[in-house]
Amino acid sequence: MGPDLVVQGDNAVVLPRLPDAAFTMVYIDPPFNTGRPQRRQELSMLRSADGDRVGFSGQRYETIKGALHTYDDAFSDYWAFLEPRLIEAWRLLTPDGTLYLHLDYREVHYAKVMLDAIFGRSSFLNEIIWAYDYGARTKRRWPTKHDNVLVYVKDPAAYHFDTAEVDREPYMAPGLVTPEKRELGKLPTDVWWHTIVSPTGREKTGYPTQKPEGLVRRMVAASSRPGDWVLDFFAGSGTLGAVAQRLGRRFVCVDENPQAIEVMARRLPTAKFLGTSEI
Ligand SMILES: C[S@@+](CC[C@H](N)C(=O)[O-])C[C@H]1O[C@@H](n2cnc3c(N)ncnc32)[C@H](O)[C@@H]1O
């Protein structure tokens, strides 16, 4: 077992160099579909015709994919970008492992179709809604104040999930429950109210897309054990690494942006920093 790692490089190049079934939990928060053409970079791997996965039959998946590609050019590029990386995520998960894919409401439904194909529909565990409340409120529609996190397990019969490790929330109507229950708090549901990273708070790194540790902590706590390896290959400011360190997990964080690496060098000083060619 080596040290915790931060790798600078395109994850399409880095991921194939990591060993099969090494990570109990993968959290990724990819850049959202920006409309700009993404580089079409294929990973050196093939979708196994049936393999171990029990997703859509190849035929049906290809039809859906073809239809989506005709319908939305920008999405076609995004799909080409995301799909091979999600296939890698599947390969890298341990048999009891879990993927958390953090997206926004514009991408999540397409990604659900893609993950159903890659992991199998029966491997879909949850869609977590992260609800927050900040910024302007449009009057032209319901202001959108949430992100979506799709949760897929590699094996629906054998995944690790431990709610005893998760922080609990205050009851909405504390007067209606016993003092013991009130004291203990309630187990979170699939809707998580959590503030964004405060611009003045301790957690702030200055990285623009930084996510709150509180969200990622729940995921790591429930879906991995102390000593397990966890992975974020769109790591940004290294939120997953920071949480993993505090919870006694081992981590690999990957990002191609030099600014992200600078932030992680400050935030994760005990990790080993490598370039793509060094792994
Ligand atoms: C939304 S941010 C992640 C933020 C992170 N969750 C945090 O809490 O700071 C997405 C990150 O993906 C990185 N990224 C985009 N494409 C990449 C690629 N092909 N390989 C590696 N990193 C990539 C970007 O540099 C960016 O830092």
Shape category: globular
Strand content: 15-25%
Q: What is the fold named in CATH at topology level? A: Rossmann fold
Q: Radius of gyration over alpha carbons? A: 19 Å
| CATH architecture classification name | 3-Layer(aba) Sandwich
Distance between the termini: 14 Å
Total domains: 1
List the total number of helices: 8
Relative helix content: 25-40%
CATH C-level class is: Alpha Beta
Written as H for each helix and E for each strand, in order along the chain, the element string is EHEHHEHEEHEHEHEHE
For the biggest sheet, the summary is: 9 strands, mixed
Number of strands: 9
Hetero ligands:
S-adenosylmethionine
Structural class: alpha/beta
What is the average per-residue confidence, as pLDDT, rounded to a whole number?
89
Family: Belongs to the N(4)/N(6)-methyltransferase family.
Domain DNA methylase N-4/N-6: 25-264
GO molecular function: DNA binding; N-methyltransferase activity
Protein name: Methyltransferase
Structure, explained:
- It is an enzyme of class 2 (transferase).
- Keywords: Methyltransferase, Transferase.
- GO terms for molecular function: DNA binding; N-methyltransferase activity.
- Helix content is 30%, strand content 19%.
- It is an alpha/beta fold.
- The protein has one domain: Rossmann fold, CATH 3.40.50.
- A 9-stranded mixed beta sheet has the order 6-4-5-3-2-7-8-1-9, sandwiched between helices.
- The radius of gyration is 19 Å and the shape is globular.
- Mean pLDDT is 89; it is low at 35-54.
- Bound molecules: S-adenosylmethionine.
